[in-house]
């Protein structure tokens, strides 16, 4: 698959990549900052997008980063990730669940981290 | 291979996160067109800023005020973002929202789970911030206001700006230079300290927070 193909994200192509599946149901549970780590190697028989995800996720990457590197819409990436998760080829590290107010120790950690920047 | 100088196909060696990172948090930078959101993201990010996008179908954009796009089947909304590794276990993502502000709030999950938001304001064009401020308040997303210091910006006193923007007393207003890493870092710090105050004293949202002082 050439770079031109990757960049050409027309609706028909997106439909083909997603296998025509309903994106809404699959996106449940994935946030822009859900971290993904590959737990399997890419295989030649895989859909190229699945293999590409496994290739770049040898270290943790967020859904947003995967979307950026693969140049695919965020919601399509979550469909592909749902496939890989179902096959146990990836591990996901969910973000802190949305709460009315974040945890104080978490905020302290962020403040300390920013101070070192 | 990618020879056209655009974004890479994967993270560079120096950009890999530690395998131990277990938690990611996010903040969102909002503001009018050209106010410096992407500049701020680039200033604080440890990686070259990336762009993610979402394709919104007609069903997704719904019945909001979308005069002019109703004939389109889908609309692509782009989002610039950067990353700051906080520790071996925690990473912070900073999302900027270029253009098309009416779409930000239709992007599922952008604000859900966000720690908070920074509203970047150009004092020469205060009016573009009103809509954003209102929508954040409606959604209950905590935010600080950062005044990006353009050389020719009028130097309004902070309290005058607070009145002009109709901001409650507890919302911090800080000055910044979005081109500066340190200054942009301080904006994020101001947001985190404000969030800390809110979390430590939930009642603070209803009354002035003494510790929420401008850093500028």
Automatic annotation (TrEMBL), chain A:
InterPro entries: DUF742 (IPR007995). It comes from the Bacteria. It holds the Pfam family DUF742. This is DUF742 domain-containing protein. It comes from Kitasatospora phosalacinea.
TrEMBL record, chain B:
Keywords: ATP-binding, GTP-binding, Hydrolase, Nucleotide-binding. The keyword Hydrolase applies. Gene3D superfamilies: P-loop containing nucleotide triphosphate hydrolases. It comes from the Bacteria. GO terms for molecular function: ATP binding; GTP binding; hydrolase activity. Belongs to the GPN-loop GTPase family. This is ATP-binding protein. It comes from Kitasatospora phosalacinea. The lineage of its organism: Bacteria, Bacillati, Actinomycetota, Actinomycetes, Kitasatosporales.
């Amino acid at each position: 698959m050439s770079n031109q193909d990757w960049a050409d994200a027309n609706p028909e192509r997106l439909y083909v990549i997603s296998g025509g599946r309903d994106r809404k149901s699959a996106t449940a549970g994935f946030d822009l900052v859900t971290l993904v780590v590959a737990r399997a190697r890419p295989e030649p028989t895989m859909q190229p997008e699945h293999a590409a995800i496994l290739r770049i996720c040898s270290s943790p990457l967020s859904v947003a980063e995967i979307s950026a590197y693969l140049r695919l819409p965020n919601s399509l990436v979550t469909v592909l990730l749902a496939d890989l998760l179902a096959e146990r080829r990836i591990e996901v590290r969910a973000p802190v669940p949305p709460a009315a107010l974040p945890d104080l120790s978490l905020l302290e950690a962020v403040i300390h981290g920013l101070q070192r920047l | 291979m990618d020879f056209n100088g655009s974004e890479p196909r994967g993270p560079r060696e120096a950009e890999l996160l530690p395998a131990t990172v277990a938690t990611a948090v996010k903040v969102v930078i909002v503001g009018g067109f050209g106010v410096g959101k992407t500049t701020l993201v680039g200033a604080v990010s440890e990686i070259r800023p990336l762009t993610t996008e979402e394709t919104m179908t007609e069903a997704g954009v719904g019945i909001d005020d979308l005069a002019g796009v109703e004939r389109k089947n889908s609309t692509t909304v782009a989002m610039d973002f950067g990353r700051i590794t906080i520790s071996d276990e925690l990473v912070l993502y900073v999302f900027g929202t270029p253009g098309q502000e009416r779409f930000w709030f239709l992007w599922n999950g952008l604000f859900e789970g966000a720690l908070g938001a920074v509203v970047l304001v150009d004092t020469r064009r205060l009016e573009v911030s009103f809509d954003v401020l209102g929508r954040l308040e409606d959604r209950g997303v905590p935010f600080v206001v950062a005044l990006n210091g353009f050389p020719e910006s009028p130097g309004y006193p902070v309290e005058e700006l607070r009145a002009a923007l109709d901001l409650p007393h507890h919302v911090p207003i800080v000055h910044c230079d979005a081109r500066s890493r340190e200054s942009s870092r301080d904006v994020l710090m101001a947001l985190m300290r404000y969030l800390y105050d809110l979390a430590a004293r939930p009642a603070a949202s209803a009354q002035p927070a003494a510790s929420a002082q401008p850093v500028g």
